[in-house]
What we know:
It contains 13 helices and eight strands. By secondary structure, the chain is of the alpha/beta class. It has a single domain (6-301), classed as TIM Barrel, CATH 3.20.20. Strands 1-2-3-4-5-6-7-8 form an eight-stranded parallel β-barrel, surrounded by ten helices. Helix 10 (217-225) packs parallel to helix 12. The longest helix is centred in the C-terminal third of the chain and has 22 residues, at 279-300. The mean pLDDT is 97. Bound molecules: glyceraldehyde-3-phosphate, 1,3-dihydroxyacetonephosphate and zinc ion. 1,3-dihydroxyacetonephosphate (13P) is lined by residues 24, 82-83, 180-181, 210-213, 253-257.
Amino acid sequence: MPLVSLIDMYKPANEQHYAIGQFNVNNLEFIQATLEAAEEMKSPIILAASTSAIKYAGFDYLVNIVRTGASKMTAPVALHLDHGATIDDAKKCIDGGFTSVMIDASHESFEENIRITKEVVKMAHPKNIAVEAELGRLGGIEDNVSVSEKEAILTDPDQAVEFVKQTGCDALAVAVGTSHGAYKFKGEARLAFDRIEIIKKRVKIPLVLHGASGVGQELLDKAQKYGAKLPGAKGVPDEAYKRAIALGINKINIDTDLRLSWIGAVREIIATKPEEFDPRKVLGPAREAVKKVVMGKMKLFDSAGKG
Ligand code: G3H
Ligand code: 13P
Ligand code: ZN
C-alpha cells in the first residue's frame, strides 16, 4: 500500500499502549531488511532518514526505494525525517513524499523552538503529515549529577504542556536519560520513568524515546569477536522498553543496534571467508542480521500483529 501518515498510525498505538519502532535507514539493504521484518511481523513500521542519510543516499533514491518496498506490503509504512535541523529540511520532506517529519530545534530557546515547530506544523498538517518536535537535552543522568544539573537535561513537564498547546505537534521527543550512539550510560542504565509518566499524563500525545538502542551483549560479542572495538558500550535494557511504553512512549528510535548487527555480520564474512569478493555474499547476511534485530524490537515494542 502507499506510505501511511504517522498521524494515522499514532492513534491506535496511543489508545492501545504500544510503540511503533522507528528504524533508521541509509541504503537499499537496510530498507529491505526493515520492510521485510514489518511484513513478517505484521507490524506497523517507521522508516527514518536523517539529513545525513538523505545526503548519503540521495533524496529521490531513498524516497522511491521506500515507496517501492511499501507498495508491495500489507503492513503500514511511514517515512519520517529524523532530526530535521531547519524549516527548509522539513519543507523538502513535506513536499517530497515523507509522511512524517521531525523538527529538532531543542538546542534553541524555548520560544524559538515553539516558533520553528509551529511553522513546520503549519506546512505539514494541511497534507496530513505528522510533526515530531523535541524538548530537553538528550543525555545520561549520572549518579553524581546534582538536582539542578538533572533538571537542565530532562524535559520540563510545564514546558511540555505549553509547547504542545502552542505548537500543535503530533508527537514529542522527551529527554529522559537516553542518548544517541553506543555509549549511553557510564554506570547502570538509568531512565527517568517518573518523568515520562508525569509528562504523558499532562500532554496526552504520543511521546518518543530517542537514543533507545539496546546495545545488547550478543551484538557486541559478535562484532568484537571479529575485530570491532567497542569498549564500554552500553544501551537501554529490554525491560525498560516495556515500562516506558506502559507509561506513554508510542515511538521508539533505533539506529545503533542496526549498525551493530550489520557490522558484526560484515566482519564475520570478511574474517571467515577471505576468498569472498561478491558484495551480495557480504551484504546479504548483513541484511538478514538487521532484519532479525528489527523483528526482535517489534515483539518488545508490542507492535507485532498490529499492522
Ligand atoms: O539520531 C541520529 C541517528 O542515529 C542518525 O544518525 O545522522 O549519522 O544518520 P546519522
Ligand atoms: P540510537 O543511537 O540509540 O539507535 O538512537 C537513534 C535515534 O534516536 C534516532 O533518532
Ligand atoms: Zn534521535
